Amino acid sequence: MQISPSILSADFANLQAELDAIRSADWAHIDVMDNHFVPNLTIGPLVCEALRKHGITAPLDVHLMVKPVDRIVPDFAKAGATYISFHPEASEHVDRTIELIREHGCKPGLVLNPATPLSCLDHTLKKLDLVLLMSVNPGFGGQKFIPNVLDKVRSVRKLIDASGRQIRLEIDGGVKVDNIAEIARAGADMFVAGSAIFGAKDYKATISAMREQIVAAK
Known about the structure:
This protein has eight helices and eight strands; from the N terminus they run E-H-E-H-E-H-E-H-E-E-H-E-H-E-H-H. With 218 residues, the chain is an alpha/beta fold. An eight-stranded parallel β-sheet has the order 1-8-7-6-5-4-3-2. Helix 5 (149-163) links the parallel strand 6 (130-134) and strand 7 (168-172). The longest helix has 15 residues, at 149-163. The radius of gyration is 16 Å and the shape is globular.
């Protein structure tokens, strides 16, 4: 079970201190938005590269909310991404994009929005290292968790277990201390948290509280 703070919610005027404060986390999540595929504009490969130069050695979990997606994949791979996830709606050829990510030395993930059908996994799951389920509609941080996504988590957990492969099941959107246990029980094993961590007074204490809730859910 891994916790991945989303730096989208960090204070970018004080980013170095913000990064130092989340070093107890397992991963770092990078939300990339293009103001085209989603209604917001965020960060690019230079920020990913800066995290590595700052000494962040944890896996960098890059979530691409851009269209078209293939053009930007090599840039994030070069910048130090570990996982690169994308939305099937943003790719003309989903299988090709998966292979492109792997060819550039990263682990591919597919992102499903709340209304995206699970049929997108029918011919892709065996090639993935991560499935990211959005529990909000992408574009902005600080949104409320959509409870219906828990059924989707349970369904994808069954698919992953049946595949026999080590595929991460990640949840992103509205994850907080008071609901992370329920999400873990549904079958997620990676948890993206933005405002719940960066909006807290003590980041480390919040991450620890999340871990305690996950352990209690087992």
